[in-house]
Amino acid sequence: MSNDSTRCGNAAYATTQISADDPLRTRIAEAVRSVRNTTPLAQSFTNFVTINLVANAQLASGGTAAMSFLPDDIVDTAQIAGATYINVGTLLPFYKDALPDIAERLAHLGKPWVLDPVAAGIGTTRTAILQSFRDYPPTIVRGNASEIIALADMWGLNDNVGDAYPSSRPAGVESVDDVDSATGAALRLARHLGRHTGKAAVAVSGEVDLVTDGEHVYRLPGGSAMMTKITGAGCSLGGVTATYLAVADPLTASIAASSLFNRAGEIAEGSSHGPGSFQVEFLDALWNVTDEQIAASPILVTR
Amino acid sequence: MSNDSTRCGNAAYATTQISADDPLRTRIAEAVRSVRNTTPLAQSFTNFVTINLVANAQLASGGTAAMSFLPDDIVDTAQIAGATYINVGTLLPFYKDALPDIAERLAHLGKPWVLDPVAAGIGTTRTAILQSFRDYPPTIVRGNASEIIALADMWGLNDNVGDAYPSSRPAGVESVDDVDSATGAALRLARHLGRHTGKAAVAVSGEVDLVTDGEHVYRLPGGSAMMTKITGAGCSLGGVTATYLAVADPLTASIAASSLFNRAGEIAEGSSHGPGSFQVEFLDALWNVTDEQIAASPILVTR
Amino acid sequence: MSNDSTRCGNAAYATTQISADDPLRTRIAEAVRSVRNTTPLAQSFTNFVTINLVANAQLASGGTAAMSFLPDDIVDTAQIAGATYINVGTLLPFYKDALPDIAERLAHLGKPWVLDPVAAGIGTTRTAILQSFRDYPPTIVRGNASEIIALADMWGLNDNVGDAYPSSRPAGVESVDDVDSATGAALRLARHLGRHTGKAAVAVSGEVDLVTDGEHVYRLPGGSAMMTKITGAGCSLGGVTATYLAVADPLTASIAASSLFNRAGEIAEGSSHGPGSFQVEFLDALWNVTDEQIAASPILVTR
To answer: Which chain B residues touch A if contact means CB-CB below 8 Å?
Structure first.
């Protein structure tokens, strides 16, 4: 990915590696250490498939976890949690009322949260829930390319600019679009979030992760193809992003979490023999990788 | 089990190993390769205990996974999935309406699905749900002996033939009956399914797995006793059966999945030291076992 | 912890190690062997985060597992199960009616159960559910110090004695109180349970676990700090306590389960490199640790 050039808006910008002493790297290292030293609580409303891995990844990253589904639980816990993670996989009927209610209450409380729009575009209930978040949006959205494009479509953000980014067909939980194709949607989403919450970020996961604060676009190469052969690498990345959001600004939290996952994925790939041992080694690596390793990650920026 | 003789209907038939060049072995190898080459999506409506292992086993076998509980999610995803897996463990109140609705809609869409009648016989809600499936049945049923017998009882299939197969008492999630005692129920179930869906199969899991298309009875020895010391070996077998059903006929899918699990169980037993490492090694083995190993599995047939 | 002196009631009592031939050690060894020889069924109504680990820990300890959420399933399964485990994490709306109903029905059936009051004090729904258990209480309560104190508060038990034990602020799922601070609450809870169910016990998990039958206070040192770096060590301890309760009295079941977990934790810590491998090694150790090792555990008693 180094020395790549990328269409962003309608112009081509140079993508360059940020320097070794860029202040962003300092903020990343500080976030990693702060989580490990203060074990912040990030709570989750997340799907049943990967809820265990989300909690274990948050613990392995140094934070603590609490999972709830009732608005009264979420609101009570929001008072003692640094951030909230909401993931719209495996919906149940009562979520249609509960999730819009929770988003509105978090907005009134001024509590930051991370949204994972899993399977955006599948199901009328999910669409209704995701649309309700438009006016009480999260601080960070993290998804795959298809989900980011679908969410920006749902929120009518793709009409706001003159260029034509491709829309996505519903894709289940797997992306059918590549990360670069979601660049425009990610930028527009990040700007929309920022208008509501101040600082904001959007992270697009894929072969090379993309993170933007609505102004700059960062690309984070690395990781392991084995991360797609276990369920929940993306969900647990969303959860750990919330853990970092408890101690850092949205852009730093998103980049720190992606970089942690990429380094841990590489370490796990080298010491595993299939998806079973990969997951075990991955959790160990989340625990063992150093703040220096994470902060020294390749970070390419398009300005 | 070789050279065994088994009561089937009212007559004794010889059980023999199928030959090394039996076309069934070719179909099994093709199914295994096809899944690994095309990563088909099989969606699941499954219990909360083992939902993570179901997804991870499907991924480790080469497929992709999506889990949902709302009819609108299931029907939307059915359009892009090769097969659906429904497992009636850990019921919630809304399932009583949702699951009959889903079965009827899958029937009208002509979409194949696999039923795991977990704990059949326990609870009035589960009984009502399972009875509703009688007229919109799955393509494959996979369960333990007690569950297969209980389901055939519920569907009134045990009155259709002159012989008297034993009925089962409710058994929780563990079978209290051995596989052979479910032979008659499995045959009658398979014929019932086939009348609705064309080709069909029933798989009975146990010390020696049994699979039938309503005509022939196949027995698949092997596996590991440690598979009963982790939760979800049966559930994840049902999920992987759906993965294979996305690319193969019901009989081939059922035999390929059972054979894969038996070979992976044997490999995992040899390299593990307890149920924790067994599950890790089992997922690695699902990923690493070759199509030739699976297709060369012992397959005994009663004609 | 040896030769410690502990405030208990208003007096100071000597804490001493029980002898090597104390009958309690014999009962512990018998419970461990009985579970491994008879594979008793303990059913669970438990949270979605750790439901898989609860089942796997019960299996690794030698028992069998069944998980349900509908009252008709729980009541049917109670007929064939030795004990029931109820854990109030990850509440759904229908639990508000289902759980009080289940507790009342278990009381009328005379079936023993174990309560894990996860996150007691968080959420009005959880509080209503926990308050409803006051008159149909479990045989055993197992929680962290904050949860035990909060539950005793909710049940109005802290007014029954002259001394003033500290109340706890809501703490999410992590304890903010240390085990000793819950001694009084644990004693009063155990006496309350005992008035309803005959023999009863309360277990407080922490750096040194505490178990009381309302008369004596036992402290069980050991374990591993890594048990707080995986999700569900406490939940699965509650589940395995139910497994032992299927074959033993409440005090023996609680001490056997805590001792098993402490020994397994120590073994796992020695052979793991992070929380991923710790969980794997922990399940292996639950399977491999001997009844002699468990029964020989350090057990300090305050008489």
So the answer is: 41, 43, 48, 51-52, 55-56, 59-60, 64-70, 72-73, 76-77, 80-81, 92, 94, 279-288
Residues of A in contact with C50 (CB under 8 A): 52, 55
Helix, strand and coil in chain C, % to nearest 5: 50, 15, 35
Please state which CATH number belongs to domain A5-10+18-302: 3.40.1190.20
Q: pLDDT 10s per residue in chain A (303 long)? A: 233 333 333 344 568 999 999 999 999 999 999 999 999 999 999 999 999 999 999 999 999 999 999 999 999 999 999 999 999 999 999 999 999 999 999 999 999 999 999 999 999 999 999 999 999 999 999 999 999 999 999 999 975 444 444 444 455 666 767 999 999 999 999 999 999 999 999 999 999 999 999 999 999 999 999 999 999 999 999 999 999 999 999 999 999 999 999 999 999 999 999 999 999 999 999 999 999 999 999 999 987
Instruction: Give the Cα separation of A245 and A243 in Å (integer).
Output: 5
Closest approach of C46 to chain B, Cα-based (Å): 10
Instruction: Identify the helix (H) or strand (E) that includes residue B164.
Output: none
Strands (E) located in chain A: 5-8, 11-17, 41-45, 64-67, 83-87, 113-116, 140-144, 201-205, 209-212, 217-220, 300-302
Q: Please list the residues that pair with A7 across neighbouring strands.
A: A12
Q: Please measure the distance between the N-terminal and C-terminal CA atoms of chain C and give it in whole angstroms.
A: 15
Of B89, B119, B275, the CB nearest to C283: B275
Residue C261, H or E segment: helix C250-270
DSSP A167: P
Q: How far apart (Å, rounded) are the C-alpha atoms in residues C40 and C62?
A: 8
**Short-list A85, A96, A156, A144, CA closest to A118:** A144
How far is residue C275 from each of residues A216, B70, B117, B286, measured CA to CA in Å?
Answer: 35, 34, 35, 24
Neighbours of B5 (CB within 10 A): 10
- Domain map of chain A by residue range? 5-10+18-302
The amino acid that residue C108 corresponds to is H
Whole-model pTM: value is 0.94
List, in order, residues 6 or more apart from C278 with CB less than 8 Å away.
C224, C226, C229, C230, C268, C269, C272
Is the ipTM value over 0.90, yes or no? yes
**Spatial distance between the Cα atoms of B168 and A222, rounded to a whole number of angstroms:** 55
What sign for the dihedral angle of Cα C220, C224, C225, C227?
negative
Assign domain B5-302 to a CATH class: alpha beta
Q: How many residues does chain A have?
A: 303
- The number of helices, as runs of H, and strands, as runs of E, in chain C is 11, 11
Query: For residue A235, what are its two tokens?
Result: 């969900």
DSSP three-state, residue B276? helix
Alpha-carbon distance of B292 to B297, in angstroms, equals 9
Q: What are the angstrom distances between the C-alpha of B267 and each of A294, B206, B284, B295?
A: 36, 18, 9, 16
Q: How far apart are the C-alpha atoms of C207 and A216, rounded to whole Å?
A: 47
CB C288, CB B274: distance < 8 Å: yes
Q: Indicate the residue of A66, A72, A286 with minimum beta-carbon distance to C173.
A: A66
The two structure tokens encoding residue A97: 């009322």
Element (H, E) at B259: helix B250-270
**Residue B12 class from Cβ within 10 Å (0-12 exposed, 13-18 middle, 19+ buried)?**
exposed
Nearest residue, CB atoms, A288 vs list C122, C174, C274: C274
Contacts of B286 in chain A (CB under 8 A): 274-275
The residue count of chain C comes to 303
Among B280, B281, B290, most A C-beta atoms within 10 A, so best to mutate, is B280
- The separation between CA C75 and the C-alpha centre of its own chain, rounded to angstroms, equals 22
Residue A234 has phi, psi (to 5 degrees) of: -70, -45
